[in-house]
Amino acid sequence: MSTSELEEKRQERLLSVRREIPPLGLGTWQIPDGPECVNAVRWALELGYRHIDTAQVYGNETSVGRGVRESGVARDEVFVTTKFYPSSRDPVAQAEASLRRLGLDHVDLYMIHWPRRGATWAWPGMERARELGYARWIGVSNFSSDQMDQLTAEATVMPAVNQVQFSPFEYRRGLLDECERLGVVLEAYSPLGTGRHLGDATVTRIAERLERTPAQVLLRWCVQREIPVIPKSTHRERIEENAQIFDFTLTDEDMAALDALDRTGGTDRAYADRRHRSRSRG
Ligand code: A2P
């Protein structure tokens, strides 16, 4: 295949994954299994979300599955994602266990949660899980550019997504560029900095001018970059607020002011260092 044909194929894949993934999802990291989680998922779906993100290590797949069922929204209208816990060895067996807990016959996206013990060893098992129909798409989370390069050099089925911590304060431009070059959609977790970014002066100033909230400004920044985003909340009114991001626009000046908040130096890594990493989802 020529370079331009390869490039065209990657761009096509990027477009088809973007078409499939609802741009706004509910993140469920740190929501304990139980009624709080069932309610958050149910409310999100009632309020129009069509994308719910969980992981084996969150320990809440049972409640996520219950919330999806209790919402009454048809299964094929909801994009459900979970993540393989790479301290275990077998992505296929772990996918089967996830599906049992979720009470579903497949997930829409199954990701390697982080590149533990190397970037490539788990991928054949992820491909097998897809072949068996356990996941419609497979992807990764917390992978750097180097790790994406290693993986895509060996993959038979290309990863659809790399889910990483991403916000104006963690504007990993190098990683975003490399994902796009490879035809992989970068997805943003902790877009509010787990709440830390909401009090920032620049974010607040833009929010006040637009008569929006800081959370909406941070989420809109992702939407305008075509980056699927999964804010977490267990409060119905915040889940609703976080969905009101498709009826306003940030100006070029707003986007530039937000871009300038980056503290990563436009890194191509998925997290800064071990200390930082232990604070991010992983
Ligand atoms: P809570 O779950 O109590 O509503 P992130 O998505 O970056 O991980 O951020 C999640 C954190 O931000 C949670 O602590 C959540 O609190 C809080 N949060 C989510 N949405 C909002 C909002 N619209 N306004 C204020 N805090 C929010």
Key traits:
binds adenosine-2'-5'-diphosphate, alpha/beta, 282 residues, single chain, globular, seven-stranded parallel sheet, 12 helices
Protein architecture, described:
The protein has helices spanning 3-20, 35-46, 61-71, 91-102, 123-131, 145-154, 173-182, 201-210, 214-224, 236-241, 252-259, 274-279; strands at 26-27, 51-53, 79-84, 107-112, 135-141, 161-165, 185-189. It has 282 residues and is α/β, with parallel strands linked by helices. A 7-stranded parallel sheet has the order 1-2-3-4-5-6-7, with helices on both faces. β5 (135-141), α6 and β6 (161-165) form a beta-alpha-beta unit. 48% of the residues are buried. Bound molecules: adenosine-2'-5'-diphosphate. Adenosine-2'-5'-diphosphate binds next to α10.
If strands are numbered along the chain, what order do they take across the biggest sheet? Answer: 1-2-3-4-5-6-7
Fraction of residues in β-strands? 5-15%
Provide the succession of SSEs: HEHEHEHEHEHEHEHHHHH
Low-confidence spans: 275-279
Structure classification: alpha/beta
Query: What is the approximate shape?
Result: globular
Ions, cofactors and other ligands present here are: adenosine-2'-5'-diphosphate
Cα Rg: 18 Å
DSSP helical segment count = 12
The main β sheet shows up as: 7 strands, parallel
Helix content: 40-55%
Termini Cα gap: 37 Å
Q: How much is the average pLDDT?
A: 95
Number of distinct beta strands: 7
